[in-house]
Amino acid sequence: MRVLFLFLLTSLVLFSNTLPTKIASNLGVVWGMTFLDENRMLITFKEGKISLLDLKLKTITNINNVPKVFNKGQAGLLDIQNKNGWIYLTYAKNINGKAATTIARAKLKNDSLVSFEELLVSKSISSTNAHFGSRITFDESGHLFFSIGDRGVRENGQNLETHSGSILRLNLDGTVPKDNPFMNNPKALNEIYSYGHRNPQGIFYDKESKKLYAIEHGPRGGDEINLIEKGSNYGWAIVSKGKEYWNMSYVGMYRTNKEYVDAIKVFTPSIAPSSLIVYSGKKYKSLKGNLLSGALKLRHLNSIVLNSNGKVIKEYRLLEDLNERIRNVIESPVGEIYISTDSGNIYLVNINESNQNRD
User: Fold this and answer.
1) Is the peptide bond before 181 cis (omega within 30 degrees of 0)?
2) CA distance 284 to 183
3) Which of 175, 186, 211, 242 could disulfide-link to 221, CB 3.0 to 4.6 Å?
4) 23 close to 348: Cβ distance less than 8 angstroms
5) Residue 349's closest CA among 82, 13, 45?
6) CB 298 within 8 A of CB 241
7) Do 328 and 32 form a contact (C-beta atoms < 8 A)?
């Protein structure tokens, strides 16, 4: 069903060095977004709905044949990505009253999902409804990556016999790449690419630098951006800069340890990050190569500047005056930046580059 919805293209409000334009409102929690072309994007709603938002025609259309999802706690319909004519989805699937992070793909035809394929129902069931991840990204070699949180069980981060607390790598058809790091390990799952993660809700492969980045929630403090390397262990919950929720003691035995990979950026206090992109620089040259992430708790668009060696040299916090939980950030094919918020809004973000020097 095609319904006309409100575009607020004239209400520009200055928030420090950004000009957000509200594109749509009262949508519900828009968890994932992906462009089909310059003017059309698919959006996912946590409760289990997908819609097609047409920026040119100013319409929104509900998509049919969406898989049923387990919508409880942090579970639900999560990320969506368009790749080579396939629509890839991550969501929580109901398995005998509990939920497992699942990845699937389908084709889009006549406002319906067709040729639906479940690629992996992960081994990640727990007794909690927390820490599902999950974002999707692709490299240039025919692989997809997606993230799964520790499912609220800290020990899962160091357990290679569960998919929880890991970033997984598959071929685009769901098969397992023969060079995955744990293929010959009888005590590890073949799909695991890296582990020791708490709840990575952002992941992005930068084709220019050929680097894979992830951003994850820490506990009370200790949110992390990590450069993901094949087979590496990022330490959760043995290594953390976050503290317990019930007292002031740190989580884990170590703040850093040479046996585990350190984050390239730690946020203390927590910003509660959700989603991640490396901006291409197509429209805003000053942001080229910056890591952009939404912040849920501290309610801003986070911008991290890296030097030529990939080291963090500066942080910007944009859209703080918007005072909304930013759930997702994406880049359009022409370099426009869009965000979604838990208030049910989608914004086009216009950057004032005069405030974005990189020294």
Assistant:
1) no
2) 42
3) 242
4) yes
5) 13
6) no
7) yes
> What residues pair up with 114 in beta bridges, in sequence order?
107
Rounded to an integer, what distance in angstroms lies between the CA atom of residue 136 and that of residue 110? Answer: 24
Instruction: Provide the token pair at 80.
Output: 């969506």
What are the CA-CA distances from residue 245 to residues 89, 148, 277 (Å)?
Answer: 32, 22, 29
Alpha carbon separation from 168 to 11, 174, 245 (Å, rounded): 42, 11, 29
Tens of pLDDT, residue by residue over 103-134, are 999 999 999 999 999 999 999 999 999 999 89
Q: Which amino acid is at 193?
A: Y
Peptide bond into 134 cis (omega under 30): yes
Amino acid at 15: F
Asked whether the beta carbons of 216 and 237 are under 8 A apart, the reply is: no
pTM > 0.90: yes or no: yes
Q: For residue 84, what are the contacts with CB-CB under 8 A and spacing of at least 6?
A: 172
